[in-house]
Amino acid sequence: MNSESESLLSEHELDNNLPSGNNRRIMEAQSEHQRTKMYNTLYSFTTSLGTGLLLLVLFWILHCRGGFTWQSNPKTQFNWHPFLMLLGMVFLYSQAMLVYRTGRMLQKKKLKIIHAALHLLAFIMSVIGLKAVFDSHNLSKEPIANLYTIHSWLGLLTVIIFSMQFLSGFISFLYPGLSPTLRKTLMPIHVIIGTSAFVMGLISSLTGLTEKVIWTLNGSYSSFPPEAFLFNAIGLIITLYGLLVLYLVNEPLYKRATIPEDELALTGSE
Ligand code: HEM
Ligand code: HEM
């Protein structure tokens, strides 16, 4: 406890070491401050790691895979797929989930709009990423079969669950919005489905990466060329980033506390 807060305690409280009203409020404010500081430090580290991941994927595509094109060259059109899926289904998805904790001082109504807008952006990036991979199969000189791998099944299922979650979240919590009792009942389901689909997105990314490294390096993977090192590093960073996000979004200590401004919002606080 610092000297400033100590001076706010009455002598009686200090002598008897009792957590009276004043004392308790100060202790609560201090522990909220500590928790916010801890969250912000971990969040900054995690987000830097996520940004590093996207930069590394860009480097891999530009340096080793011929860059980006659209339908003029299906081979390089494919390259949009890993980049946009990681940007949408991993990075923007996780930033959207964490927004309530990161912007804890903002009014709940504003956070809901940012949460929904970031998820919508994640969805748009993913749809363009899927269009890129389907085109790269269908427009190839010798068309490649669609949807035969576990990666493609799991990936498509992830995007379908994500879309349903978006619609149900929008209708339940934003517009038109269900009754407060229903919103309260639905919230734990919303959180479980939202975090589970994120885990599915991580697994999809790792399976996609594995397929790509095996097909691209075509037998030379075991001799461990520099590109294989890059692939493995990307896979490890995806895993570490995902685990950190899951910790930050699940840890009850970091959950946003209601602020007085929330009560003024018309659609309630849940
Ligand atoms: C959450 C992230 C991802 C999702 C939801 C996803 C989804 C999909 C889907 C639905 C397909 C099927 C396309 C078709 O059949 O024409 C596909 C194909 C493919 N994806 Fe991904 N993907 C993701 C991330 C990645 C990543 C990071 C890579 C890494 C390079 C990757 C590599 C591939 C490859 C090589 C194919 C073609 C072979 C196949 O159909 O399995 N994907 N992806
Ligand atoms: C696919 C889209 C979505 C996913 C994956 C998702 C996921 C999540 C997750 C994981 C949380 C827990 C956050 C925390 O504990 O700090 C959450 C909370 C919440 N979400 Fe969503 N969500 C989605 C869409 C939406 C939409 C469209 C709305 C409409 C506004 C919405 C409204 C809320 C609300 C009100 C909370 C409660 C936050 C709190 O009480 O602190 N969600 N969401």
From TrEMBL:
GO function terms (MF aspect): metal ion binding; oxidoreductase activity
Region (Disordered) residue spans: 1-23
GO CC field: membrane
Domain called Cytochrome b561: residue spans: 45-250
Subcellular location: Membrane
Main location: membrane
Needed cofactors: heme b
Gene3D superfamilies cross-referenced by the UniProt entry: 1.20.120.1770
SMART domains in alphabetical order: B561
Bilayer disposition of the protein: Multi-pass membrane protein
Transmembrane segments: 42-62, 82-101, 113-134, 154-175, 187-209, 229-249
Protein's recorded name: Cytochrome b561 domain-containing protein
Organism: Rhynchophorus ferrugineus (Red palm weevil)
